[in-house]
Design a protein that fits this description.
Order of helices and strands: EEHEEHEEEEEEHEEEHEEE
Shape: globular
Number of helices: 4
Structural class: alpha+beta
Strand content: over 45%
Oligomer: single chain
């Protein structure tokens, strides 16, 4: 008999996300999620499991397929929980979530819009960041790297590899995966002049994808820009699926707060069979 999984499919800046409601043991979650996000199943870029929270202040827990933190999936779950209340356009609500990769509760400020929801959420601060050495095809680089709990992002100026940037990023992902301890990582092609971000994300054991929207990648770019300019800032990044906003607050030169902003719509809900 096939396994039946209740799911919600969301569209956070076209970073298509599955929220899985059927309880699945942690040790099987990545296996199940990998099957569900495949082209011949529900099809999405990523998946997370809705669980009961340990902290009673949280409305729910989101456990991502690789145990990483994901801003877009967090916004998606907050939007879904808010949608169940059938809010009127313009209505707002603050929703607290437990999320994998985040030590503190994640605060999501949601607002109902005509097309869905807009949301702002507090992102976890990075564990570490700075320039690290990498090599590819006998070329050596020093690239700004931002490490969050469960996911690491490497920022690559898109001019570095020119017209071959996507091909090089795919080659680099296969090679650099061996050097990165996190189960998920991204290679972020960034054009600072146009503020255009093209993210390539790899989840160990689940595959790699050119994401159309990436919340943690957008946040990593915010960390990079704030560190480069040595000041607090707000920026809008243009991703293939739309725009995302990031605000970075520094206090005495230290990273104090990261706030991500994006749009979410709920596109489907049903039962998947695997």
């Amino acid at each position: 008999m096939s396994l039946q999984i209740q799911f919600i499919k969301t569209n956070p800046t076209e970073n298509m996300t599955l929220l899985l409601q059927t309880p699945v043991p942690r040790e099987r979650q990545q296996e199940i999620a990998k099957k569900l996000i495949a082209y011949d199943n529900v099809y999405a870029e990523q998946a997370g499991f809705i669980e009961e929270p340990k902290d009673l202040r949280a409305a729910a827990r989101l456990q991502m397929m690789a145990g990483e933190f994901c801003g877009n999936a967090s916004l998606s779950l907050a939007a879904y929980l808010f949608a169940k209340e059938q809010p009127e356009e313009g209505e707002e609500k603050t929703i607290l979530l437990e999320v994998s990769g985040a030590e503190e509760l994640v605060v999501c400020q949601m607002k109902k819009t005509v097309e869905g929801f807009t949301g702002r959420l507090s992102m976890p601060l990075p564990v570490a960041y700075g320039f690290l050495p990498y090599s590819l095809e006998k070329e050596n680089y020093r690239l700004f790297t931002v490490e969050f709990a469960g996911i690491t992002h490497i920022i690559v100026p898109d001019s570095l590899w020119g017209d071959c940037a996507k091909e090089k990023a795919e080659q680099a992902a296969e090679l650099w995966e061996k050097e990165i301890s996190a189960d998920a990582f991204g290679i972020l092609l960034l054009n600072e002049q146009t503020m255009t971000l093209t993210p390539f994300v790899s989840v160990r054991g689940a595959g790699r994808v050119w994401e159309r929207g990436c919340g943690s990648g957008t946040t990593a770019v915010g960390v990079y820009l704030a560190e480069k300019q040595r000041k607090s800032l707000s920026a809008v990044l243009h991703l293939p699926g739309g725009n995302m906003g990031i605000s970075v607050t520094l206090q005495n030169g230290a990273m104090e707060q990261l706030t991500l902003e994006g749009n979410v719509s709920i596109v489907a809900e049903g039962v998947a069979y695997i």
